[in-house]
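Quick one:
INPUT:
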């Protein structure tokens, strides 16, 4: 019995627990820049929403939404996990890929890049009910395989965008969320090009805060 309960305790200890609210470094880019996540809301909130501001260095529009999300009051029962800049080296260069030429949003499964490994660990630890990834510049919401239609549609309706079934890309962050977090929904918001005007960023921030799982 002792051995069994010891094993159970060891298994429990091995499961990563959600982090306390605050800012933390979850990893480092190829060139050593810290990758930072901000966690807001209580650990025992009813729902967790993960939002990723940018993974492709030449698509920085999502950061305007992230800035809003860091300061807006949170609705009751929400835990918000914010990863603003997932590809700092690419952002510095203005390139889609990381410093080693890896497309991070095709790297989940192979994990050649420290940046995608950091995001994967964050996903496993926080187990989001909804994960929203900002990209550019198609002006639509992509619904990947495995995402619940109603959740994606509700987001798109709130921001006035159309929903399109995502092409079957392999190794995306969304596919990773769906694989590791049962009953989660992960999707991609393709903002139009350029920097979103404040009213657009506000609309998306509100829609993120209103997101709930199926
Ligand atoms: Zn992209």
């Amino acid at each position: 019995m002792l051995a069994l309960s010891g094993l159970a305790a060891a298994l429990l200890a091995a499961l990563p627990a959600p982090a306390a609210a605050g800012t933390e470094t979850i990893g480092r880019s190829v060139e050593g820049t810290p990758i930072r996540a901000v966690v807001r809301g209580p650990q025992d909130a009813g729902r967790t929403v993960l939002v990723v501001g940018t993974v492709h260095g030449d698509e920085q529009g999502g950061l305007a939404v992230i800035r809003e999300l860091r300061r807006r009051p949170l609705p009751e029962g929400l835990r918000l996990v914010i990863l603003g800049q997932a590809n700092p080296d690419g952002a510095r260069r203005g390139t889609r890929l990381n410093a080693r030429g890896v497309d991070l949003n095709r790297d989940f499964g192979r994990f050649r890049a420290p940046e995608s490994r950091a995001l994967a660990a964050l996903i496993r630890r926080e187990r989001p009910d909804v994960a929203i990834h900002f990209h550019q510049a198609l002006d639509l919401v992509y619904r990947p395989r495995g995402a619940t239609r109603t959740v994606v549609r509700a987001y798109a309706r709130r921001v006035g965008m159309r929903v399109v079934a995502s092409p079957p890309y392999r190794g995306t962050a969304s596919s990773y969320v769906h694989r590791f977090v049962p009953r989660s929904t992960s999707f991609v918001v393709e903002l139009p090009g350029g920097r979103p005007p404040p009213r657009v960023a506000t609309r998306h921030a509100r829609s993120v805060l209103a997101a709930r799982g199926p």
